[in-house]
């Protein structure tokens, strides 16, 4: 008898009544309690106990049968459930193992050029090893706008990356939901437009700390005269490069891939602001980088925990980070 009941329990007990819900006043839990009491002192094992056990079992089996034949639990269980709320087995015991991670696991940093992004990417390389997330970088640095097909392909590529991932590239905002993807969490860092203009002016001419040859790649055909042109003269004499400082440059990173996003104007600005509100977890400013890193550490600890101490630590900083203010 003991054996029989043990066989019954997992089958009929676990499925229809995961909570061990009572049926017809004969809860399975009570049955096994009763059995233990009567079996332990073997001498007191009586016919009455045996009958009680079998009756419990019978009611239990019949209930299970009706449940399955009738296509659902009896009415009073449904009433009970309505009273208790609509939680299900899955609600109480957690979903089956799924790929959804309990924190934002899809992060995109569509970094704006000359806004400190190289420093952040260096930090990300250290962090990705430390925290074991998937840092996906791109080799394409000069293509921020994409055709519809390119957007689709890139979004597909990003979405299939192993999570948690952080994708980063110089690219205008991509609308994942437009192509049926999950919208990732966006982060970005911008900078005072005048500082950005200054940084870009010198970067085009002399590169940055990365290498002395860098400027040869950026502006190989620039004449020596132009390369060593004083920025004050460039501005005062209204050279084309300085009369159009491209202050609008930052907006399309937040507005998106729509052609109107690249026309300086109200429409693009409003859309960029809307997007920042709806899709960006954080848009930091380079002038307050330490605060930005602290916020990232709080908002996305699985990616950025400890970033501030890495940034401030003089040792690795000397090895991997540029001196302050180079980007
Ligand atoms: C449970 O769901 C039913 C039908 O969907 C609904 O009528 C009922 O109000 C819900 N009960 C609770 C407590 O949410
Ligand atoms: C981007 O750079 C690559 C080489 O680095 C060059 O072949 C390509 O034409 C550039 N594309 C644009 C849009 O400037
Ligand atoms: C997508 O990934 C494939 C393979 O990793 C690569 O060859 C292709 O260039 C990627 N496409 C884009 C748009 O990044
Ligand atoms: C993204 O695409 C969805 C679906 O097409 C659209 O409803 C939404 O307005 C778009 N958002 C942006 C910022 O373009």
UniProtKB/TrEMBL annotation:
Membrane-spanning ranges: 50-69
Pfam families, A to Z: Sulfotransfer_2 (PF03567)
Region (Disordered): 1-21
Domain of life, per lineage: Eukaryota
Alphabetically ordered keywords of this record: Glycoprotein, Golgi apparatus, Membrane, Signal-anchor, Transferase, Transmembrane, Transmembrane helix
Signal peptide: none
Molecular functions per Gene Ontology: sulfotransferase activity
Membrane topology of this protein: Single-pass type II membrane protein
Compartment(s) of residence: Golgi apparatus membrane
Similarity comment text for this entry: Belongs to the sulfotransferase 3 family.
Name of the protein in its database record: Uronyl 2-sulfotransferase
């Amino acid at each position: 008898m003991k054996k029989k009941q043990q066989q019954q329990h997992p089958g009929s007990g676990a499925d229809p009544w995961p909570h061990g819900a009572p049926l017809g006043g004969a809860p399975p839990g009570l049955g096994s309690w009763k059995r233990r009491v009567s079996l332990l002192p073997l001498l007191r094992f009586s016919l009455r106990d045996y009958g009680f056990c079998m009756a419990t079992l019978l009611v239990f089996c019949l209930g299970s049968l009706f449940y399955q034949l009738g296509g659902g639990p009896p009415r009073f269980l449904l009433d009970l459930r309505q009273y208790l709320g609509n939680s299900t087995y899955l609600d109480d015991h957690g979903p089956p193992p799924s790929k959804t991670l309990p924190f934002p696991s899809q992060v995109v940093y569509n970094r704006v050029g000359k806004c400190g992004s190289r420093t952040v990417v260096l930090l990300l390389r250290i962090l990705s090893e430390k925290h074991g997330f998937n840092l996906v970088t791109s080799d394409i640095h000069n293509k921020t706008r994409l055709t519809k097909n390119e957007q689709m392909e890139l979004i597909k590529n990003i979405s299939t990356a192993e999570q948690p991932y952080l994708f980063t590239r110089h690219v205008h905002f991509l609308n994942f939901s437009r192509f049926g993807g999950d919208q990732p969490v966006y982060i970005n860092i911008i900078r005072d437009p005048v500082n950005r203009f200054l940084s870009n002016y010198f970067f085009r001419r002399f590169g940055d700390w990365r290498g002395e040859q860098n400027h040869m790649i950026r502006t190989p055909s620039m004449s020596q005269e132009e390369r060593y042109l004083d920025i004050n003269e460039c501005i005062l004499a209204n050279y084309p490069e300085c009369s159009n400082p491209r202050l609008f440059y930052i907006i399309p990173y937040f507005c998106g891939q729509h052609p109107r996003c690249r026309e300086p104007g109200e429409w693009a600005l409003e859309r960029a602001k809307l997007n920042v509100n709806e899709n960006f977890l954080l848009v930091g400013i380079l002038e307050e980088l330490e605060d930005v890193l602290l916020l990232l550490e709080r908002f996305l600890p699985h990616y950025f925990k400890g970033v501030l101490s890495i940034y401030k630590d003089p040792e690795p900083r000397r090895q991997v980070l540029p001196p302050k203010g180079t980007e």
